[in-house]
Amino acid sequence: MSCSEETGLNVSVRMGEVETVEASRDRGIAVTVYFGQRKGSASTADLREDSLAATVEQACSIARHTEDDAAAGLADAELMATPQADGGWRDLDDWHPWEVEHDPQRAIALALTAEQAGRDFDARIENSDGSSLGTGTSLGVYANSHGFIGRERGSQHSIGSAFIAGRGDAMQRDGWYSIALAADDLEQAAAIGRRGAERTVSRLAPRKLATGRYPVLFSAEMARSLVGHLLGAVSGTALYRRASFLLDSAGTRLFPEWFAIEEQPFLRRGFRSANFDAEGVATRESALVFDGVLQRYILGSYSARRLGLKTTANAGGVHNLQVAANAGGFEDLLRGMGRGLLVTELMGQGVNSITGDYSRGAAGFWVENGEIAHPVDGITVAGNLKDMFRAIEAVGSDVDPRSHVRTGSILIGAMTVAGEG
Fold first, then answer.
1. CA 291 to CA 171: how far, in whole Å?
2. Which residues form the Metalloprotease TldD/E N-terminal domain (predicted)?
3. What's the CATH superfamily of 91-201?
4. pLDDT at position 193 over 80
5. Edge-first strand listing for the sheet containing 405-406
């Protein structure tokens, strides 16, 4: 059984005017029951006693009418997380409510500050796609018939701005945002607006690029998507459905020998830090990739049983991934690439999860002599993810901290870039 409560405030402004102010408070209870290996689940947001009783009965009714599933059931009892000696859970420093949640006027003022700073940054910023602020807290409790009871709570806050520069067919849009578990870790509102505006005007007057094979540097925020494709391919669901280009790949080298990814569930103020997964299984630090070799899959107990393996404490997803760097910062990567394409935006969903074929629309900048020369757009970057993984030449130390996947920019030695001709 799980129960949760979430509260939050979201405001948005555009061109100096308030567009939306939304306060929210959601709560609910979900119940899952097993009759042997038949499963039934039901949930409700009505916490009155008669509603809870009806919800349990509904879950039982569903379980009575489902088919047996040999992989169904709770995670094994011996895998349950246990509190520390003092009876409490490890402090992950993830609870930082922001008083702005109860002060809509201040929230609006911060969003307006971000937008105005961007609009004042450059005369070529003639329009705004708006600025927003969001803040919220959540509390969740999970319990099962093994006797496990675990509590998680967290907070998350964000400020973002987007702008439009130029006119007509020459218009370009971009922006910036900051997100953190503690408001003190957010970038200043005015700095967010200025950075969003700077990114927008930098994209004006893009040029076309001749079709060819070039080195491609994925900026840190785009590099996360490459790790995301890996995660999707090694997830238990994709594997037992035989819908992954990385079937039977555990123990094989997929990356250069220096490449490594570590899961860090106890990272303080980490976006996905947790003492236990969605089934109550104790989390643990472990390598996903080491020396370029895929060490394991990403499994909850159900997918693990389907595959004849053991859960990796990843029911509900991964808990903070750190991609090891082997290079310096962003400027070092540009100099190391010398000549090639910097990708700062990806579009479309052109990834085949079964074959690994990769083809996505992109925009960014052409790099010449280790420096950004001019913006480019209207291009497509293509390859096969297995080949792309093997062709990684560098991971930078310019980690984008705005995600549970912590990676710097990633340089791939050569990819097909479709442009003109």
1. 45
2. 4-63
3. PmbA/TldD superfamily (3.30.2290.10)
4. yes
5. 293-294, 286-290, 261-263, 321-323, 405-406
